[in-house]
Amino acid sequence: METVDKLEAMFQKAEADIEYVEKRLKFDFMANAREAGTFEGNPVQLLENLSAIKARHAALCAQVEEIAAEQKRSMDSIRAHLDTTVQLVQQLQNTADVQAVPTEQPQTQAQSESQNMHEEVSEGTFETVPRSVRGNLKLNDLNTLYKQLSEYFSDKNRGPISTQRMKKLNMKVSDSALKTLQHLKLVELDKKGLVSLLARD
Fold first, then answer.
1. Domain Ska2 N-terminal spans what residues (predicted)?
2. 116 found inside a domain
3. 20 to 30 A from 186, CA-CA: which of 1, 53, 70, 107?
4. Are 142 and 121 in contact (CB under 8 A)?
């Protein structure tokens, strides 16, 4: 749009220059006629040529105006399409936000279930376990293993796990820790020594 405006300004200046030249020629012809009584060259032909130049210039000005009008229509159309696109994007975002809301609740429930599944063994509860069962086991090591087992069994599709498997998963497993968890009824050991996590009351 700025380029078209510059062209219009240039054509307007050129038109003013042509009019000035035409007036200047007429004035010079009249002055020469008064002084010498004759004309050098053919003033009529010069004026006709000048008129032809003005006509071509006027045609070019009309074309520039048409270009400017067409450019304005194009810009208006682009703005209209852009506004429509922005509105569609906003509607899609609003729709996506509305659809995303229901998925938040199941995630929150799953997180809540995971938190309820694992609660650390308190020191008081730990002290109720006979020394013959827990041996030299430390409370921190017990809670570490219990947390690891809780995270492992958070997948409901997983079955009982063996001691060898726990070691491969870098769990802090020991016989005293498993016996202590079994004594507290937090885990269950079957005849094969496979461990299952029990739900806490």
1. 2-111
2. no
3. 107
4. yes
